[in-house]
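Let's inspect one such protein example.
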Amino acid sequence: MTELTRRLILASGAAVAAAPLIPPGARAGGGGSESGSPTSEATGGQVPSIYRYKVGDFVLTAACDGMGRRPLEGFISNADKADVEAVMKEFFLPPDALPISYTPLHVQAGDRSVLIDTGTGGRSAGTSGFLLDNLKAAGVDPESIDTLLISHFHGDHIGGIDSTDGKPNFPKAKILVPEKEWAFWTDPAEMERAAEGRKGNFALVHKIFDHRKDEVERFAWDSEVVPGITAIGAPGHTPGHTIFRIESGGSKLVFLADTTNHPALFATRPDWHAVFDMDPDMAEETRRKVFDMAAEERVRVHGFHFPFPANGHLAKKDKGYRFQPINWEVVL
């Protein structure tokens, strides 16, 4: 009997790495795809990044817009870089930059077709801007979407409202935004006193919303914005940052938006403050309240920046929380 040693494991891994890869779409027995050879897209790109599941009678589709990479230097304002690097290592993450996913959520709520947040629109650096392709791969026609729900006005959430040439990506959709978020980002005084690094986001808000100001609907917190979907105030990340409770048939899910960034860092260490949080102390307070609720009620959550497909459950652990990804299901 062969002894299972570290040397043997590593040698086996090297052998696997050296073996020729079967191209995506090809069959293990040879013969390539059904057309005889794998497509060029299959050899260099990713397959559609979508995941569909149900909450009661609602059908939800996580559709990834892509991802970016955030350098660790200065990312967490109240932690030593060495401590952050240690957590990155614990969770098998790269030592120098945090991979951050962007995953909007489509909700088919009866006859309502709702998209929560719109991704970057390809405006952000990195491999992003794939939302429309992934929605189409899921069978969701962007023209069929009747409602856009916006959690807050950061560019990776509103950038996909329009294409880069200014045309609406969802031409038949009514846009609903938090009234507190609208009040802050459209206030000329706030733009005037904003830090230099934040002025670009003000400019994007004006570019997307100025010509729509009479059409965009503003909603209050604790209101049912779509039947079965309730807006809940979750300030700190931005002044009007909003999460959404989705309920149907006795089941429930909470769309966390940016209550936290990557769970490996901010669920395990909820006291850490990300550079994107405009009021870090309030963001931490909100994060703990929302996570406590999710853990106590054992409610399913969707985190916009969680690793795809971006949903699962939160449980209390030590002084923080543990994120348990969902178990992938083949059928709804």
Notes: Residues 162 and 168 are 4 Å apart (CA to CA).
